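Dear colleagues,

As part of the handover before I leave the project, I'm documenting each prediction I ran so the next person doesn't have to rerun anything. This entry is a single chain, and its sequence is reproduced below.
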Amino acid sequence: MSSGGRPGKSDLRRKRGTRTERPKILIVTEGERTEPDYFKGLARAVRATGVRVVKAKIVGSGSDPETVVRQALSHREREEELDACWCVVDVDSHATLDKAIALAFSEKIALAISNPCFEVWLIWHYADLSAHVRGDQLRQILRGYGFRDKTLPKNFPFGNYREACRRAERTAADLAPGARGPNPSSSVGALVIYLVEETGKP
């Protein structure tokens, strides 16, 4: 999608006025296990350090990108007082990604897109990776860090999310949510920064 069709920051959450409680967000992921486990684990890890975290309802769909966005719309209609709605999807070889991007933009749903897949975001918690890579190669690398059957290891370094953001930025600078980036790339960092509302922290 061209830069002219990407959602801006003002589209990603509605204004909350004078409300003081934590914002509430819906996250619908393409994966049924790895992505939900990551976001739940991240929330637990950063709360332990006193960081303020958005209240997140996380739904693992196990579906293609367009279906993920449609599921998000369905959930959003049933939820009350949502501040934002995000979908986490992969590029991979999905034929519905362009439709998902267009639908998400029209419905003001933010997309965190990883190319080729979410595993690249996980690897950036451990090491640099900037060369073109396939999904099966990413999963092989993660096995070296203790990943088994899409399960995050108990010692996964959630606290390295800032370094993951920096690595993602170096690989694809200025990648906005809702944009299909090069291989490798991921805009999951924008969602992570939204989840972890750190006042005054870099």
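The mean pLDDT is 85. The first helix runs from residue 34 to 47.

All the best with the project,
I.
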